[in-house]
Amino acid sequence: MRPGPTPKVPELPEVEVVRLGLEQHVVGRTIAAVDVLHPRAVRRHAGGPADFAAQLAGRRIAAARRRGKYLWLPLDNGDALLAHLGMSGQMLLRPATADPERHLRVRFTLDDPTPAPREPRRPLRSELRFVDQRMFGGLAVSAGGAELPGEICHIARDPVDPEFDDGLFLARLRSRTAGVKRLLLDQRLISGVGNIYADEALWLAMLHGDRPGNRLRKADVTRLLVAVRAVMAAALAQGGTSFDALYVNVNGESGYFDRSLEVYGQEALPCSRCATPIVRVAFMNRSSYFCPACQPRPRRRSRD
DNA sequence: ATCGCGACCTGGTTGC
DNA sequence: TGCAACCAGGTCGCGA
């Protein structure tokens, strides 16, 4: 069996697709058993793998929530199962008989849904599986975390949250000297934005990522927020359309990702606005892509 | 407090 | 052909 393509890194829209799938297929069901196949997957659970499993066994899943790239499943006792997909995490709902995935890390056996009175058909026994190749992701039980896990209280609301405060974001951005891309990636200011959508939003807003926060005009920040929401809405519209009832997957095979990219990964290709070749530069041990004409570097840069 | 950077992690790709 | 180096990047924690 050949390995599939490298999953795309989940940012807010991808995580929201997973949340929708969990909401539809897992909420209301009870965790019968938990099997931690790799301890690193629960490294952020203080009590270790055995305690992680013990605390979840018998609990009913009450809801599926998200803030930024964090997911959590509130449980019937007020605790929550907290999850981050990292770079390569997936949540899969699979028949219990399905072969284990190569990078299966944690397996949750779910009780069969209660059959309807007039429905003698036996429901399919299924498992929720946490699969993660690179293991930047992880799971934990958050004590009393149903409403908002304490572990993520430092994570800002995301731009899709109706309670996201645009004015507060503006004020905080403009109080900082760091470049606007770095600030976009700071989950304490705004959550859910990763390297890919940061580049896409900056291109759409025609801002260079090195523009210091405190030198942004109000109109720049307004444009940036519009852009962030636009790229996320577009991704969500294409990625969140459908998923198989037994397959909740962060890297659904929709292909929306590549089709809609304007700058990320597009080095040397012409900008769709002005035809200037897209430039790639090193940024925080990774890459930034931008159009040097549409997104002029701020002055006071020593290079270029 | 803020800033900037290294560590963590695996597997596909590139370069010699 | 073999093997080492590089690359992807979200988040945490550290030193300045």
Tell me what you see in this structure.
- It is a single chain.
- The protein has 304 residues and is an alpha+beta fold.
- It contains 7 helices and 10 strands.
- The strands form 3 sheets. The protein has a 4-stranded antiparallel beta sheet with strand order 1-6-7-5. The protein has a 4-stranded antiparallel beta sheet with strand order 2-3-4-8, with helices on one face.
- The chain binds a DNA duplex (16 and 16 nucleotides) through loops.
Summarize the topology.
Elements (H helix, E strand, L loop, with lengths): L11 H14 L5 E6 L11 H9 L8 E3 L2 E5 L5 E5 L4 E7 L8 E7 L15 E7 L5 E5 L23 H8 L6 H5 L10 H11 L12 H22 L16 H4 L19 E5 L2 E5 L14
Antiparallel strand pairs: 1-6, 2-3, 3-4, 4-8, 5-7, 6-7, 9-10
Helix pairs in contact: 1-6, 5-6
This protein binds a DNA duplex (16 and 16 nucleotides) through loops.
Task: Give a concise summary.
With 304 residues, the chain is α+β, with helices and mostly antiparallel strands.
Q: How much β-strand is present in the residues?
A: 15-25%
Secondary structure: helix percent: 10-25%
| Structural class by SSE content | alpha+beta
Number of helices: 7
* Mean pLDDT score: 87
User: What is the rounded distance between the termini?
Assistant: 48 Å
